[in-house]
Design brief:
Length: about 120
């Protein structure tokens, strides 16, 4: 897998508060992408240390990449970039919490509005 493919997928993931992709907002850049065997790893930077959408954005990044690539995706905040870094990283890594977050995004219409897969 190439980083350019990951970037192309993420161009279709939009911040819920801004009409721009996570790539255009520089939430994810090529240097934030790495690979561990077949796993895709993303370390993202929210728009601010108190970004209320940080959890949603991380969940949508993981969702879009898993749906489009069929690969396992590990998403985390870049260290020191969000006030609730530990809690949000737990949501991204815990299957039940992540699945619950995706379901809430789906019910609220945010997933459909912000992610094209």
């Amino acid at each position: 897998m190439e980083k350019s493919i990951v970037i192309d997928v993420l161009r279709k993931v939009h911040d819920p508060e801004y009409p721009m992709s996570v790539v255009d907002l520089k939430i994810v850049n090529e240097e934030d992408i790495s690979f561990d065997g077949e796993k895709i790893k993303i370390h993202f930077t929210p728009t601010s240390p108190f970004c209320p959408m940080g959890g949603m954005i991380g969940a949508m990044i993981k969702y879009a990449l898993e749906k489009r690539t069929g690969k396992t995706v590990e998403v985390s905040l870049k260290p020191g970039t969000h006030a609730q870094e530990k809690m949000l990283n737990e949501i991204f890594s815990d299957k039940k919490q992540y699945d619950d977050a995706i379901e809430r995004l789906r019910r609220a219409g945010i997933l459909e509005r912000c992610v094209t897969v």
